[in-house]
Structure formats: C-alpha cells, structure tokens
Recover the amino acids of this structure.
C-alpha cells in the first residue's frame, strides 16, 4: 500500500498537526492549572492530562506513523530541505518514543501533575515530607523511562537528551569545573565591591498595576507581540505556547521590589520572542520547533541580562520607570544599573545575580545526577543539599523552601533540565558577541531602544532555523564554534567594572 | 467476542470518560477564547477545536461504541438503575450522532468559532454585513445537520431536540400565544406603575473591584464553591464546566451600574450550582449530565429572579452593598427592590426586566424558526427583526447592535436554543412554588440568608437526577406536573404589587 513520496509526506504532516492540536490543548490545560484553575479541579485535570498525553503518545508511536516516516525516508528528500529535516527528526523521536509504553507516559503525566501540587503545598509549609513520596515516585518513573530509552551512556545522559540533544554529564562536569575555577578567582572581589551597594537600595512601594504597565511597555519595545500573546500571574514564572501565534508569559509580583517582575518578564519575553519567531507554517513539526532548552535559555538570558542589566538600558528606560514609580527619581540610571549587577551569595536561584547564578545550577546538576544514578536517596536530599550549598556559598540553609524545595523542575519530573540554564548563559554571551561583530553599531542602536536589528539577527541565525540543527551545530552555524564558556566568563569578569 | 455485561458496561464508561476528557479540553479552550486568548490565536484555535470535536465525534460514533451499547442493552439492567439510564441515553445519542458525518461536525465547529469572532466585530462596528456570510453558512450547516438527523417533524424541531428533548415548535407556539395574551393584559399597568421609578435612580460610580467582591459574597452565600469554580470577565456572560469540580462563571462590568454584573453573577452561579450539584461520580455520563437547557435555565433564573429580585434579598444584603458602594446609602432596601422590578420596553434581551423578557424570546423563536425552515433569508434578517420588534415593543431599533446582532447564540450555530429561556422561566416559577409547598417556612429562611434548604431541595429534586428523566418527566417528578406556564404568569402578575 505504498503511496507517492509527496502523499506520504503530506499525510505525515497532517498526522503531526493533529498530534500538535492535542499537545497544544495540553499546554492550555497546564497554563490554566498554573494561572486560574480552582484547587478542587486538580484531580480531574491530572487524569485528563494523563489521558491526552498517553493518547498522543499512542498515536505518534503507531505503526501507521512509523510506516509514513519510512516512506518519507525512501523518498530521497535533500537532508537540508524542510522535508528532510522533518523526516530525520521525526525518525529520531519515533525511535525513542516507541521504546516507551504509553502507560508509562500516562503514569508520568499524572504523577507529575499531582507532584506539582504537592510541591506547592510542601514549599508553602516548608515541609519536605509532604513532597517526598512524590519525588520518590518521579525519580523511579524517570529511571524507568531512561531504562526503556537506553540511548545515553548513563540514565542521566539519556534523560538530558530530551532537553539537550547530544549533551553528556561527563562533558558538562569538566566544563563546569573549569567555569567554577575561573569565576571563583574574581567572585570575592565582586562580593567586596558589591558591599558598597545597599541591598535595600530600591526597596519601596511599587503598585502591581504600575509594574504591569511598565513590564508591558518594555516587552513590547523588545518586540513581543501582545496581539499574539499575554502576561498572566503565577507562583513560578514560565513561557508556553498554545499555538503558533499564542504565546503566554507569566510572572509574579512583589510590591516592594519591581525588579523581580521586570526581569521575570524580560526573561520570559525572550523565550516568547523565540517561540513567536519559529517558522509559523512549520508549527508542530521539527522545523518549527525550538532547537534545545540550552538554545531557548540563551534567548531569555540574552534579553534579561545582556539587554536588561546594562547602563544603556537604564539610561533609556529611567524616565518611563520614574513615570510609573515616582520614588525612583531618587536614583540615577547608573545607580540602578549598578544595583542590578551587585553580587552576593544567596539562597534562591531565580533571584540570584548573574555572577552566582551558575553556581546554583552546578549544585542542582550534581544533585540530580546522583538522584537519577541512585547515588542519593530522595529522603537524603535536604541534608545533602544543605551541606553542598554551604560548601559552595558559605551559607546555612534556614529551611527547605529556601533550599531543595525552591524549584519546580523536579516536581515536574524534569531531571536533566537544570544544566541547560548554564548552557543558555554561555550560548547567550557567545551569540551576543557574534551579533556585535556582525553589527558594529549595535550598541548605539540598543542604547537608542532600537531593538529590531538584534531581534532580526536572532531571527535569522536562531529562530528561523527551528530544529533544523542539533544545538551544537546551530551554535556553530550562528557563531562559528560550538558552545564555548569563555565568552560567558569574560562577560562576568567585565561586570566588575560596572560595580566599581 | 462478547464479554460479560459488567465488563461491557465498564468498558463503555471508560470510553465515555475518555471522550469527556476531550470535551472538557474543548470547553477549556472555549473558555480561554472568551476570556484571555490573544486575537491572533483565533485561526489556530478554530482549527484545533474543529479537530478535537471531529475526533470525539468519530470515536463516539465508532462501531466499537455501538457494540458496547448493544451489549449493555442485552444485559438487562433495570431501566431505573444508573446503568439502565446511561445505556438508554447513550443509545439515543449514538443513534443521532451516527447519522452525522464527522466532517460536518468539524465544519460546524470551525465555522462557528470563526463566526463567533466575526459577530463580535460586527456588533462592535454595528455592521451586519460583516456577520452575514457567517450567518448564512451556519444556517446552511444547521439545516444540513437537521436533514442528516431527521428526527423531528421539521428541521427546527430536530435542532431543538438537542437542547430540549421532546419539545416542538407547534406546542411552543400555542404556549407562547397564550402567555403573550395573558401578560399583555397587565403589561400596560406595569409600564405605567414603573414610570414613577426613575430609570437612572441607581446610576453612580461602582468600582469594578468592589462589584467583584460584592458579587463573590453573594455567590458564596447561595452556595457556590469558589474552591471548585471562579468568575472571570467576558463580553457575553456564560457558565461552563471544565471538570466535575471546575465550574467557570463569567460576567461583565459596567462601572455606572453594579446591578448588571450582580444579576449576571447570580444567574450564572445558578447554572453553576446545578453543574456542581450533578452526581460527580457520573461526570461525563448521562446520569451525571444536566437534563435540558430549559431545566438548566430554571436554575439560573430561580436564583437571579426568585431570590435576587425580592424585597427580602435587599433587606438582607443592603448593609453589605452599602459597605462596598457607600452611595447606595441614599436608597432604602425597598427602593432598590422596587427599582430592580421596574418594567419598560427595551432593546436588549439580557438587560430586559422580567415582565418583558419573554417577549424578547418569543420574537427570537419566531425569527429563528423562519431562518431554519427557509422562510426568511439571512440577508433579510435585520429588516424583519426591526419590523417585528416594533410590533411587539413599540420601539424603533436604532442599529443592529441593539437589534439582531445583540445575541451570541446564532453565531455559535445555536438555533433552537432561545425558547429554552422562556421554558426556564416557567420551570423556575413552578419549582419555586413546589419548594415553598414542601417548606412552609422557606420564605423566613431565605429572608435570613439561609439558602441551604432551598439549594438542598433543588439538589434532591433536580440536580441529583442528572439526565435520568426527560425534561418534562423531571418536572413531573419534582412538581407533579409538566411545565405549566400558569405559575410564571401568576408570578409576573404579582410583581405589580411590588411596583405599587
């Protein structure tokens, strides 16, 4: 029952579009769960998400899909063509997904929806015991998943491949060791310089409505399309796409500190620009999908840090910020820029400064590696975390909400996800350097609030490529070399000047 | 491959649960479309909803489902048992749904999502021409749907059967004629009495946030569970359920008039109490589904009008209303109660007083009957509407946004839906009378804000029954007789005393 290559391809695309309708419905249900869903709805929602995930998995791993992919492989599409890219990447996913039983996909979905809710509760009550059984279950399910897949040289590598194709724990460990060594050399000086900047310098009253307006102005200015997206409020900020022109950002507000939501929005809007910049007509197909989480994170960190934490940004936005928050008048743009670059050891990753941020990641990487490889038991997590944290940061963790319960990722079964944050930081610095090389006047453009040349450069070299390349190939195609920590380290070191 | 009756039943239930996961996802996507979705997301959303509707339809109408129903029919379940009810009602739906091709379901879904958006635009711009092609298409598709089904004695009856099982246009026409005759006899007096109550009596400034708080207090007091539901803002208020414990109400706000959102919320919360009162363990099965729209509407109108528009309600809630809206202090509870019962001819159905409301419905019934039966062309709708409206209300329609473009229903392909509103009013009066007979002290309870006895009565006699009975059987079981317009007419006539 062989059909013509183009018919097979069209049918395969149709199938993927249908599965994407389900995945996007799932994303909408997840978004709702985080933003608006009433609490008693959780039980039904968890079963609903499990069914939809399982069903999409069954459909994708069906013999029909496999045959369509085979037919497309025999069609002789050029490897660089959209058809070639989609066929190759779908084969890769198919071979992986068919190794996993749909029942495990369902079990994982339901367990993580429930764990997600237990985690919120445990964090609020600072009670690790409430989360422990869920964490244990998710580790077991993740290990099972890794065993079914068996693609990496260890379970952890197998899981990480979902987020960062081709990455390995062994390589990361050596990159991270080098990074830590280099950064540790100038970190004490950064801490010392930062001491002259009071931590409560900008503490004040910043009404949420004014924060929302300011954030919206900034997000719109960098190019986020509010006709194709919006910002809602959540406990744990994220960005998700519900369709090719439907990108939802979320943030949280602190009335005493407008910077938390501002940098949250800049970060998530960076993700959003990537999502909305992917080839729309390829939505739901590999050619219309992001390359990896390490690439995705490079986009968010680029706008958050390389744009949002510069002197130029605050020179430009100071007037508008004062318009919304009159008490900011007391501080010059340079004072604010200095403040947002101050560095000190702290407990919470998402509020950590750029200089210490990656140390938080490296800690999590080492811990989750042990959890998945069976070297650390779930019940021993708090003690291990607190001990390792003190070694890295010289601080005693006061309670688990400021320690091992602070992040959402493990409650979603996202083991192997954390290292992509530091890869993202490294990629961001490397991409930014290349954009500057390609646009000698980029700094002047940015200083005037003309963000389009930078966005266009990212669209051309990153967004429009979809999943056409592996993340490292994409970095090579965009910058001439694979991820090189050097640029990120250089940038961090240069921050000392800002602090002087 | 016959299985045991209980296994067949379990498998059928499982199948229905799965389909309900899809339907609930669709409801969530619809809810999102009305509340938060960014505009550019519409095109994808319409295709997504069409796919999901079509897919659920295909699965439900499959031979597998048919065989399961047949096996359950042969199992000899008692007709009154939950199993018997579910089997019988699923057979009824199956026989109907299998007559419709899934492609038509998809076409209808997509056409109505797009029409819904065109209608919003047309209404805002007061330009019927923008909506006309969509309306024409929906009429054609609805006629096609009716022809496939062919269950009623005319197309209109066939379509109405979806909303009100067993109802017919011929019977309604005679009920409505009688109703109109009786009400017309005392309507002029009501108009005359109302003239002494200024229409702008309560006009003022009512901040939206204060309205939200007051509405929430009232909804919680009548028993709406905010742990299992919420209120959001939309252009066209509605109530939808996304799960057995996930009921979403919506309303709209007018800062000059707090009554619009208050009665909107009381109305939708009435629907919500019904949804949340259905047997949870039967969610997604006929035994856990509402009986008909005429029954559903009886619940919303009961709380909105029989509770919310009484002197007792305003005596009880006056203090709290003044707390939120200090300027209300100028008016006594009785003055407010009189005001919310004043009657005058007006253009907008959803803002019409109780005495004229049903005349709006009868107008729509006569018009949609003609549209579906082919006696009125879509392009002739505005002229026909305006002419008939003037005959009924003595007013000239200034533009179509206050005429034939005011309601959402036709843009959703909901032909045959309108008459259920007046059936709902009639049912509400009849149920309320019976509740009073069963609870001689009900008035005193309600005056003290003890709404539980009434809610319990409704849960026992209506909510807990699901779709166990046809709507008319349900009315008989709850009140001893089928829908009888007499109680509604008597109530309306008694309103004259309130106006004196």
């Amino acid at each position: 029952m062989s059909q013509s290559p183009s018919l097979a391809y069209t049918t395969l695309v149709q199938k993927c579009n249908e599965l994407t309708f389900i995945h996007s419905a799932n994303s909408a249900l997840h978004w709702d769960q985080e933003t608006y869903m009433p609490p008693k709805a959780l039980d039904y929602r968890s079963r609903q998400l499990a069914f939809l995930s399982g069903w999409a998995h069954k459909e994708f791993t069906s013999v029909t899909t496999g045959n369509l992919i085979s037919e497309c492989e025999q069609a002789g599409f050029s490897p660089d063509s959209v058809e070639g890219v989609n066929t190759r990447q779908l084969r890769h996913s198919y071979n992986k997904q068919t190794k996993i039983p749909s029942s495990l996909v369902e079990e994982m979905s339901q367990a993580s929806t429930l764990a997600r809710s237990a985690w919120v509760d445990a964090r609020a009550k600072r009670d690790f015991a409430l989360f422990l059984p869920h964490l244990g279950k998710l580790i077991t399910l993740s290990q099972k998943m890794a065993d079914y897949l068996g693609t990496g040289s260890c379970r952890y590598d197998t899981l990480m491949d979902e987020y960062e194709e081709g990455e390995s724990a062994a390589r990361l460990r050596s990159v991270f060791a080098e990074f830590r060594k280099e950064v540790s050399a100038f970190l004490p000086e950064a801490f010392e310089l930062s001491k002259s900047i009071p931590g409560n310098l900008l503490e004040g009253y910043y009404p949420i409505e004014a924060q929302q307006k300011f954030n919206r102005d900034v997000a719109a200015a960098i190019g986020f399309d509010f006709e194709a997206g919006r910002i809602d409020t959540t406990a744990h900020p994220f960005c998700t796409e519900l369709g090719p022109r439907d990108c939802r950002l979320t943030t949280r507000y602190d009335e005493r500190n407008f910077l938390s939501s501002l940098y949250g929005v800049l970060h998530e809007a960076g993700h959003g620009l990537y999502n909305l910049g992917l080839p729309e007509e390829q939505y739901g197909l590999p050619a219309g999908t992001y390359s990896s989480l390490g690439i995705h994170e490079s986009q968010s960190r680029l706008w958050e840090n390389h744009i949002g934490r510069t002197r130029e940004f605050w020179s430009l936005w100071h007037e508008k910020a004062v318009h919304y928050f009159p008490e900011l008048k007391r501080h010059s743009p340079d004072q604010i820029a200095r403040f947002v670059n101050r560095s000190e050891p702290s407990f919470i990753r998402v509020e950590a400064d750029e200089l210490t941020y990656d140390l938080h990641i490296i800690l999590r990487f080492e811990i989750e590696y042990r959890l998945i490889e069976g070297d650390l038991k779930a019940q021993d997590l708090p003690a291990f975390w607190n001990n390792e944290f003190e070694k890295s940061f010289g601080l005693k963790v006061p309670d688990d909400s400021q320690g091992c319960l602070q992040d959402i990722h493990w409650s979603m079964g996202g083991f192997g996800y954390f290292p992509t944050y530091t890869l993202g930081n490294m990629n961001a610095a490397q991409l930014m350097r290349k954009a500057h090389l390609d646009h000698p006047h980029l700094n002047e453009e940015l200083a005037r609030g003309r963000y389009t040349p930078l966005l266009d450069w990212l669209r051309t070299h990153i967004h429009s490529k979809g999943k056409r390349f592996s993340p490292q190939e994409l970095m090579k195609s965009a910058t001439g070399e694979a991820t090189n920590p050097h640029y990120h380290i250089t940038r961090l070191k240069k921050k000392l000047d800002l602090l002087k």
Q: What stands out?
A: Chain A touches chain B through 35 residues (CB under 8 Å). The first helix of chain A runs from residue 5 to 35. Chain A has a mean pLDDT of 96. Chain A has two domains: 5-107, 169-499.
